[in-house]
Amino acid sequence: MQISNIISEEISGNGRLFITHYYDDNNVLIIEIQKGNSKPYYLKSKGPKPTGVFIRVGRSKRQATEGEILQMIRDYSNISYEDEISQNQDLHFNDAKKYYDYKNINFIEQKMFTIGLKNNKNQYTNLGLLISDENPMVVKMAAYDKDLNFKYKKEFKGSLLRIIDTVLNEIEMFNITSAIIPENGWIREETTSFPGKSLREAVLNAICHADYSIPSNIKIEFFDDRCQITNPGGIYRYNLEDIMLGIQSYRNPKLLAILYRLGYIENYGMGMIRIREAYKGFNYNDLFVNSIQWFRVILPNMNYIKEHKLEPNNLNFEANISKNEPNNLNFEANISELSRKILSLLSVNPMTNKELLEHINASKSTLLRTTKQLKEIGKIEYIGSNRKGYWKIK
């Protein structure tokens, strides 16, 4: 009773419904906490801000950032980014009309209300903004050599429909099929870098489930050993284990409905299943990385794996190749595993030292030493003051 009273008095929100406590056979007090559905829960004395909201990380905890708190409020309320009024009301739909005409679907003013591009007050919504020619969201695509120098770099802008169509065509030039004739046979063996529909599904998954309220972009990056597709916003409401069990959640249901009607997607929630089918034998934790503010799909390059004779069920894209073979390092040669981790994190979003420490297993002194080394070799740069500044990819 005393524990329940403390929870009620100190924590905002009805957290008592998700907390049970009892004594086990050894007379040890066990407190079990289930996932709540009205986040954020916070200390009443501090309010819904970083000093009052905490996130569990393993056996420890950390303060939530302001961005994470705003994300919780949006995800666990009835607020929908799609339905919010667009700040830009001077929108045009020339590209959208072309794509609807191509599918023999009439794109008329009335249909804007039906599919959610306008609200009942005749105002354009954020969904309308995404579909319009003035869409501010950008998809960035790049290809790197083994030293992380650009081999290819391009940005895709315009209506989300134009972006999808252009990107899906562009990625195919990186999906190489190799062929060899076996020594003891005459039937040639073909290997596609990214098998099945995995590459297409990963790109569509990023566009369909991105959190467009976060000021970031979708990134498609090709390395020697893999392609990784990163979108702002982690898995909506659930976690990776839930999704692997077949539980579905849709952050942008109206966008999905539009893409389904236009034939870009066939079934809701099938993208990750198709990727897993294409990569049978691979651990799904090697293929999918989920964070609160971003989600990443990692597609191993099957030609690279075949050439280097790697085991599908034992991949680690941070350091899966012997350090005695610097020319074959899959992420960057001659730098530490921690350096690769930092570069990977900063490739998604700039971060402060404090934020980096929350994602890595290292001391502050080790972090400062490593970031200094990366700065000296020109990989990252520091922006701002010592107190409030942040690191970003240079």
What does this structure look like?
With 394 residues, the chain is α+β, with helices and mostly antiparallel strands. It is 32% helix and 19% strand. It is built from 15 helices and 16 strands. A 6-stranded mixed beta sheet has the order 8-7-11-12-14-13. Helix 7 runs antiparallel to helix 10. The radius of gyration is 24 Å and the shape is globular.
Oligomer: single chain
Rg, alpha carbons: 24 Å
Distance between the termini: 55 Å
Contiguous low-pLDDT stretches (5 residues minimum) are 318-335
Note the main sheet: 6 strands, mixed
Strand order of the largest sheet: 8-7-11-12-14-13
The shape, in one word, is globular
Amount of beta strand: 15-25%
**What is the count of β-strands?**
16
Kindly report the average pLDDT value: 83
Number of helices: 15
